[in-house]
Amino acid sequence: MKLLKLCTLFSLSIVCFNCSNNNSKELNVSEKEFKIEYEKFTLDNGLEVILHEDHSDPIVAVATLMHVGSNREKPGRTGFAHFFEHMSFNDSENVPVGANRKMIPEWGGSRNGGTSNDYTVYYEVVPKDAFEKILWIDSDRFGYMINTVTKEALEREKQVVKNEKRQRVDNAAYGYTDEIKRKNLYPETHPYNWTVIGALPDLQAATIDDVKEFYKKYYGASNASLVIAGDINIDETKKLVEKWFGEIPSGPNVESLPPMPVTLDKTKSLYFEDSFAKLPELRMTFPTVEEYNKDKYALEILGQLLSGSKKSPLYQTIVEEQKLAPRVSTYQSSSELAGEFVFRVRANAFVDLDNVKTAINEGLERFENNGVNEKDLNRIKAELETNLYRGISTVLNKAFQLVQDNEFNGDPSYITETAKLTNAVTAEDVMRVYNKYIKNKHYVMTSVVPKGNLDLAVAESKQASVWIEEVKQDVANEEVSQGAEAVYEKTKTKHDRSEPEFGELPLFKSPKVWTDTLENGMAIYGIENNEVPLVQFDITIPGGHLLDPENKSGVANLLSDLMMEGTANKTPADLEEAIGLLGASINTYSSNEDFHITGTCLAKNFDKTIALVKEIILQPRWDVDEFNRLKSALETSLKDRESNPNSIASMAYNKLIYGDNHILSIPSSGTQESISNISIQDLKNYFKNLSPENASFHIAGALNNNEVKSTLSTLNEWNVKAVNIPDFEITNTVSKNKLYFIDFPGAKQSVFQIGKLALSKENEEFNNLNFANEILGGGSSGKLFQTLRIEKGYTYGAYSGISSNKEISPFTVRTSVRANATLKSLEIIKNMISNYANDFTNTEVELTKNKILKGNTRAYESLGAQLGMLRNISKYNLSKTFTEEDQEELINMTLEDYKNIINKYLNEEDMIYVVVGDKKTQFEEVKKLGKTIIELDIYGNKL
To answer: Which residues form the Peptidase M16C associated domain (predicted)?
Structure first.
């Protein structure tokens, strides 16, 4: 379940206007108001229901928002709203045990929940045939779960939430910053004084009576909003909602909380020595305004003006001139009761945060002197217009927007008003909120520095108080079990609450793909999609990391960054501004096997956006100062990577799997050693490899074949001959069936990567192995997740799979488990893989078919997903209807086929185990697994 600290899941800063005249100081609101069509009604029990029809895909999204978050908790019971969200996903009266987490993925759907300061949301997306089933399971969780709660379920879920906190907070660099900020920004009596996940001692003290009290107080129908969006019939849906949700008790009246903005009577400066951090980080948090306050919109734009472009004052003082950090961010975060304006800088290694603070002050002084540039204001609004459409491009995102605006503002269509309020922000408004909330105002400042580098903290800071869990090796008090089902008298209802039948099966049909070719040899693949007036595009050029010079891994990655730093005719700031004024985004990046130029824009601005792409490709700037800055930023990023146990595990795993002579044994971003010798000439040499000859242009959105081809004809001036991609021999000298241990002192969790090299995406058996993995590690219904999280409470999540590449790729099991469950988790995974073929029966065959076939109905809903489909077609030379052919292949697989593929590729004794954890407590434990253990350093070198 997701932790949502603020309302960022739903918040959309949006604006509709005509930006054809970018020099105009007045922007005209579009004649046609932007809105989401809906129908709203209220059940007798007080539940407000919003319905939205969208027949573009045979799927339905359901979002139930409970108006209760961490702001309703009491001191001593913090984290309870989030914990209750977890409890809600267990059992209910009329649904089989464990079904809530397991059955929905098996229907081809997805489900999750999230908790913020102010709300708890539950949401699902399912194929249309499971629509009534999802109403049954969703309403049963809502209204009929409390009697099924057992002590065993309570204790099991405590362990899961503990693991979530360890993964997100305790085992993560800068993880305690939010706790420090809240304790010092909000008084002890304020509902935002504690974090959403709360304190573990509070969680451990939770009882069944606490759970029941919380449910009865806040989980009544009158304290919620329900949104159903997708391929529905309004009249039929009303009847189904009345049937499944109409008998849920209304619950007591929950009194609304008024806004509770805070002020500070002094600035508070605190420091914290972080055992995991490798870089110093400064944050300054100013108290501001709550969600829906009209000042919020000007504050959001202020955040973009201060740091969101190369011309912004804080970027200039911190990044460009003083070179203290690779980036700076400023942003407004609003919640129901209060808001915050945040300055955040993760500095370069060994930078004194006093210097960062001084640079921030200099940047703010520059902003005060120069004021708001109207062109910058127009650029930001143009970008927000595009974000508006991106933000509601799926049925689930529409459901989120409707449900939040209804529950917190009583108006599902408030998005229209938001657009107007954002568009109406003037330069005077921005300066007014700056003066009102930022200039000369008190704030909370945190200096988080690496352990032993206290001299980097802002001078005269006081030590922050943080509660840190001690994970003990004695796990007796943390072992959990399924336990017996609760004994209770089932709630009587007028309507039969038995599981409904499936509706008519929606058959997945591939979207229509069109193809074409430019004169320079570049192939074009497109899907026309007119749901929103957007297009997303991508140029894929074969090569990527594979073409990096020997001992200089990171060249392609650095080139991708440098290409966006201006053109021969535009400075970096000019190029950024030109893109922004179109409301577009253009990015370049390098992956292991390809180099990409990607973009998103309004369909009406496609011509101008491609003109900029052409300029980027044909007229590079080769700015030496920008190259030096980017190289320095990369060094900082690689240093920061050393604080992430998941990154450490991944780098070591790939190095072992591929061997020292293969380029994929090194990250595409490079290492400190590999980038040290890279010069700008290396980037110029690599640039000559970027050829349209074997490249592919992919586009999905509101343009047809002729419109796209006409615009792209301008790229025929790009003429470069393609180069050969080198073949790398896998000289893998790593011994199989061994465990490699990397010490991460003080780790609250152990990170695992377990697997072996398997096969290429081009191998005819790739799909078969992918299908065979579904039961083992394919999401929350997989055996790994069900056992390690649901049954044992050892982890927050556990998954397995194989990535798609032309190069042979590894099959990998990934998870992070609580430190004192390291050995037991390893034993479970070892036995599960060893017995997987024997345990696979015809039941698993049918379940695999059902999950994948139905899941395909929602797999290609978004423009991004359709773009991914086109990339697969071009890269692997697949047919335009490969998804349907893959389905046919799945249907024809027999039990014997599954067993053969598992035995061929998933032999446990052929695998290696990489474990990143606390050596002091876990090294002797993992020896008991019985495998030869080899110690590595954090760079994957043998000790």
So the answer is: 408-686
The amino acid that residue 104 corresponds to is: I
Q: Can you tell me which residue has the tokens 């603070």? A: 357
Residue 602 vs residues 386, 708, 817, 873: alpha-carbon distances, Å: 6, 13, 44, 25
Task: Give the distance from CA 33 to its chain's centroid.
Answer: 31
CB 269 within 8 A of CB 458: yes
Residue 471, pLDDT score:
67
Question: Does one domain contain both 253 and 277?
Answer: no
For helices 766-777 and 882-892, what crossing angle results, to 10°?
70
On whether the CB atoms of residues 284 and 267 are closer than 8 A, the answer is no
Report the alpha-carbon distance of residue 626 to residue 576 in Å, rounded. 14
| Residue corresponding to tokens 């061997």 | 659
Of 445, 463, 481, the last residue of a domain is: 463
User: Could you tell me the pLDDT band of residue 475, with boundaries at 50, 70 and 90?
Assistant: low
Q: What would the two tokens of residue 621 be?
A: 């700037």
| Of residues 24 and 724, more confidently modeled | 724
548 with 634, same domain?
Answer: yes
Residue 843, in any domain of the structure:
yes
Q: Average pLDDT in the 309-318 region?
A: 96
Per-residue model confidence as pLDDT tens digits over 144-186: 999 999 888 888 888 888 888 888 898 889 999 999 999 999 9
Residue 790: give its domain's CATH number.
3.30.830.10
Domain that holds residue 894: 738-936
Residues 6+ apart with CB under 8 A from 40: 48, 49, 50, 51, 406, 412
Q: Are 749 and 822 in contact (CB under 8 A)?
A: no
Residues 6+ apart with CB under 8 A from 159: 478, 480, 792, 793, 794, 818
Largest CA distance in the chain: 77
Query: Is 509 contained in some domain?
Result: no
User: What DSSP assignment string belongs to 824-891?
Assistant: HHHHHHHHHHHTHHHH--HHHHHHHHHHHHHHGGGTT-SHHHHHHHHHHHHHTT--TTHHHHHHHHHH
What tens digit of pLDDT does each residue of 405-461 get? 999 999 998 988 888 899 899 999 999 999 999 999 999 999 999 999 999 999 999
In a shared domain, residues 226 and 289: no
Contact 277, 643 (CB under 8 A): yes
Partner residues linked to 230 by β-bridges? 53, 60
At position 741, the amino acid (one-letter code) is F
In a domain? residue 470: no
CA distance 478 to 501: 40
Close Cβ partners of 523 (under 8 Å, ≥ 6 residues apart): 515, 516, 517, 695, 696, 697, 874
Q: Is the dihedral of CA 470, 476, 477, 480 positive or negative?
A: positive
Q: Which among 717, 747, 771 is the end of a domain?
A: 717
Residue 248 contacts by C-beta under 8 Å, 6 or more apart in sequence? 45, 47, 139, 142, 143, 144, 220, 221
- Residues 433 and 299: their CA atoms lie apart, in Å, by 6
Q: What is the pTM of this model?
A: 0.88
Angle between helical axes of 624-641 and 645-658 (0-180°, round to 10): 100
Q: For the chain, how far is it from start to end, CA to CA, in angstroms?
A: 38
Name the token pair of 562.
């440098």
Same domain, 58 and 205: yes
State the pLDDT at residue 30. 40
According to the model, what pLDDT value does residue 415 have?
85
Question: What average pLDDT is seen over the chain?
Answer: 91
Non-local (6+) Cβ contacts of 628 within 8 A are: none
Token pair belonging to 259: 């806004």
Domains contained in the chain, number:
4
45: three-class secondary structure by DSSP: coil
| Residue 497: both structure tokens together | 């609450």
Residue 855 identity: G
Q: Does residue 533 sit in the same domain as residue 670?
A: yes
Is residue 591 a part of any domain in this protein?
Answer: yes
Cα 24 from chain centroid (whole Å): 37
